[in-house]
């Protein structure tokens, strides 16, 4: 039962990489970010408002994280989310963390969301501040401590194809070695 967890900073490419990894491995992908966004919409809030709301209402994070944890326990899944790897580490075969410079991430988010660079940069900075505070308060997890990851990859100057290729090479090598079976 294969479990791959891909975490990272907003705009680092984690969702795109997770989607492609899931496709290649023929596994479903579960995105904590998508679950969080769906909850935000259900509550009638934009993403930043919902992050602030979640800061005061810890049950929001616990709902999202419990879904990821249950999927990890069941196995055969690629999980994606900012905090996901910390939550599912005991069940994950491979944990990857994607990062990039704040400027690169702001450019990516601005293009993806159709907002200005400055707006994207402000949102990233605020989300990261709120996430760091929330995760420390709820789970005592310091999201700056990347020691749980098998691979930390800076995507600042990598194309998405290169990021996917490097990630898949690492995942396939790890899974092939662990299970003595050709996964990829």
> Briefly, what CATH class?
Alpha Beta
CATH superfamily: P-loop containing nucleotide triphosphate hydrolases
Average pLDDT rating: 94
> In which range does the helix fraction lie?
55-70%
What CATH architecture would you give?
3-Layer(aba) Sandwich
Q: Shape from CA axes?
A: globular
Provide the succession of SSEs: EHEHHHEHEHHEH
Helix vs. strand class: alpha/beta
Major sheet size, sense and barrel closure:
5 strands, parallel
Give me the CATH fold name: Rossmann fold
Rg on CA atoms, Å: 16 Å
When the domains are counted, the total is 1
Catalytic activity: CMP + ATP = CDP + ADP; dCMP + ATP = dCDP + ADP
GO molecular function: ATP binding; CMP kinase activity; dCMP kinase activity
EC number: 2.7.4.25
Enzyme class: transferase
Characterization of this structure:
This protein has one domain (3-179): 3-Layer(aba) Sandwich (Rossmann fold), CATH 3.40.50. The protein has helices at 14-25, 32-42, 47-56, 59-74, 84-88, 102-113, 117-139, 160-179; strands spanning 3-8, 29-31, 77-80, 94-99, 151-154. The model has no long low-confidence stretch (mean pLDDT 94). It is α/β, with parallel strands linked by helices. The protein starts with a strand and ends in a 5-residue tail after the last helix. A five-stranded parallel beta sheet has the order 2-3-1-4-5, sandwiched between helices. Helices cover 59% and strands 12% of the residues.
């Amino acid at each position: 039962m294969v479990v791959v967890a891909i975490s990272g900073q907003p705009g680092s490419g984690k969702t795109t990489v997770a989607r492609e990894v899931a496709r290649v491995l023929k596994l479903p992908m579960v995105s904590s970010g998508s679950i969080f966004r769906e909850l935000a919409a259900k509550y009638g809030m934009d993403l930043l408002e919902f992050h602030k709301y979640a800061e005061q209402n810890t049950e929001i994070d616990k709902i999202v994280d419990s879904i990821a944890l249950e999927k990890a326990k069941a196995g055969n899944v690629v999980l994606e989310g900012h905090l996901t790897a910390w939550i599912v580490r005991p069940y994950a075969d491979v944990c990857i963390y994607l990062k990039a410079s704040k400027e690169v991430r702001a450019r990516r988010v601005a293009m993806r969301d159709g907002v200005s660079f400055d707006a994207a940069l402000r949102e990233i900075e605020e989300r990261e501040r709120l996430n760091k505070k929330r995760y420390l308060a709820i789970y005592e997890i310091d999201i700056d401590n990347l020691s749980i990851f098998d691979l930390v990859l800076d995507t600042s100057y990598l194309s998405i194809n290169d990021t996917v290729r490097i990630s898949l090479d690492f995942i396939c090598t790890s899974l092939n070695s662990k299970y003595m079976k050709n996964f990829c």
